[in-house]
Amino acid sequence: MHNILDPIQLLAAFGYIGLAVILFAETGLLVGFFLPGDSLLFAAGLVAAQGHLNLFIVILVAATAAIVGDSFGYYFGESTGHKLFSKKDSRFFSQDNITKAHVFFEKYGARSVILARFVPIVRTFTPIVVGASSMPYMTFLRYNVIGALIWTVGVTLLGAQLGRIIPNIDAYILPVVLVIIISSTAFGVFQYIHQRLKNADVSR
Fold this sequence. Notes:
This protein is mostly helical. It has helices at residues 7-28, 37-49, 55-84, 95-108, 112-115, 122-132, 137-165, 173-203.
């Protein structure tokens, strides 16, 4: 039985299809918030560097799945998102996740669509919150495409590059993934601090 949280196993078993399904689910479905998007992209780069996948196809599939996933999340939020703010917690849903995404969107506005790509869990719920807001879809789509390309291309190429220069790096996939997650979270924290300092300067 394959472990869907192990990116190497997932790619070995399902290849491009697994990559597409997981990235779509993580960015477009409420239940996908626990899926390993960052680690999967990094692992896909590693596997491509080893010659088992085509790097160009990996990036094309990943970017397309991320864009379509966020767009699906937007339309879901546009049609039913307002109901989520009063939905009770369950095994697969936490009101706290919606609150985090809403606060993130309130702080960064349209830029949150890009920045959320680098913050686990928040990237799943942000397009839904944005869809429930008054942001026009074409504005959302512009930021969606930019964010998806930066995220998928950047993390995948990082994995491919390290896979070429560090022998057997796939044996250390777990600590590497932890570094990626910490770096992604740090990126969001940096943006938050930067915005706070900017607002403080404006208020003076």
